[in-house]
Amino acid sequence: MNLLGCLVSMGLGIAVIAPLLQSSSALVRKQIQLEKAWLVEQDAIRVIELMARAIRMAGYRRIGSLGDYRQAQRTAKVDYIGLEQRSGWNHSDLLWVKHEPADSAEGDCLGNRVEQVAHGKTQSRTKKGLRHQGFFVQKAVGDHAGSLMCTSLDRQGRLQNTSLMNHIDSLQFKWVEHKIHQGRPPSAGRSGIQIVLKTTLVEREFSRFVALRNTP
Description:
There is one protein chain. It is built from two helices and seven strands; from the N terminus they run ααβββββββ. It is an alpha+beta fold. It is elongated and about 100 Å long. The mean pLDDT is 81.
């Protein structure tokens, strides 16, 4: 085969292979996009469950006897849950909750558990007998998006902030009032909180309603 024949053969081969290579490249890009979307979804599900668990625990009091109940009634009123609207990065909201430890196996938003200190009644990772948890968004370092932060207590009862998830666009918490039931007016107070989380790496909104269990 002469040089001209080789060139013609190479040209025909490239013409045949090029579409296959382009198709393969498109499939790879699509696979990468799907994997990113799946990872973002799993991360979002995980952090929303952490926030939901904290909301459900807000206001929990460990009452095991009538004496505990009477003591709780005499204790000064404490705000166990609160929202600060548009106080975070990109006008995101901040949520904080307080509650008594349920048991030694119960972890905070980082999975840290309370521990008895020096065999006494004092417990680590508490402040005045209460656990503290908070969630907010701050600007991520070296990124145009935000980071979802978790506020908790260290062993000495000091507040600490730790990143839970990156590539966050915004985070909103909305009070949900009691609905009208069978024509009767709604009861006083709030029934729960709606969580709305938006991500940037995959433009998607994740939403979930969480009912309040221990606070009016």
